[in-house]
Specification:
This protein is mainly β and 222 residues long. The protein is built from one helix and eleven strands.
Length: 222
């Protein structure tokens, strides 16, 4: 956690001094899961949340600009897993909400002549806090059982997740030194989202959509 705080408190201001454009970005997100099926039966429900943060375009190599982002996210979700057969089995259900901060590095960040901007990079998510309610229902031909639990006794999400991210947006000038950009982003988790394998959740990875608007101001001429 101290390393993450160091990145935001020290590295980001240092990069912003060298930035050509510095801006704020925010909007809604849709939190979902992919690659969650294996030998167990797993389901999830998409939920809406929000994200806010800052971004800076640091330097330019030919038509490509490096973009650095730092953001706060509120995610909501529901996931369930089941293991068993005709004779019975266990079913786990979780409703969760969590707060993450992320640090992104967009190595490919291009703008064409129509002011369409597209980018490709990676983003590291760190879990700040998580709340969830869970239940376990066991049933067999001879017995059944039901109990509930929460974050006070179990952990659900991994602390750190790396995701591949891509975005598309169209710039619109507000002035000679400012522009606004509505954009759509897609984030694909490269690591399992949840840490506890005994919940029969398979190997779920994050699939997140972001619908955001950013406002950028030129600090330094390109």
């Amino acid at each position: 956690m101290k390393k993450i705080i160091f990145l935001f408190v020290f590295i980001f201001p240092a990069l912003s001094v060298k930035a050509q454009y510095l801006g704020v970005i925010g909007g809604g997100n849709i939190n979902s899961i992919y690659n969650s099926r294996n030998e167990h039966t797993t389901h999830n429900s998409e939920r809406a949340g929000y994200s806010v943060g800052i971004a800076c375009d640091v330097f330019k190599i030919a038509p490509v600009q490096l973009r650095i982002t730092g953001r706060f996210h509120q995610f909501y979700g529901n996931i369930s897993g089941r293991s068993g057969g005709m004779g019975g089995g266990s079913t786990y259900v979780f409703d969760y909400n969590k707060q993450n901060i992320s640090f992104g590095l967009h190595l490919l960040n291009k703008r064409d002549d129509t002011k369409l901007r597209y980018s490709l990079g990676i983003e590291y998510y760190y879990l700040l806090d998580e709340k969830f309610t869970g239940s376990r229902r066991f049933s067999s031909m001879h017995a059944s059982d039901f109990n509930t639990f929460d974050e006070s006794s179990y952990s659900l999400s991994e602390k750190g997740i790396i995701a591949l991210t891509t975005s598309f947006g169209i710039e619109k000038n507000l002035s000679p030194t400012m522009y606004i950009i509505p954009q759509l982003s897609l984030h694909l988790g490269l690591k399992n989202e949840f840490s506890e394998s005994q919940y029969y959740l398979g190997k779920p990875k994050a699939l997140r959509f972001f619908f955001e608007v950013g406002i950028f101001r030129r600090i330094k001429k390109i």
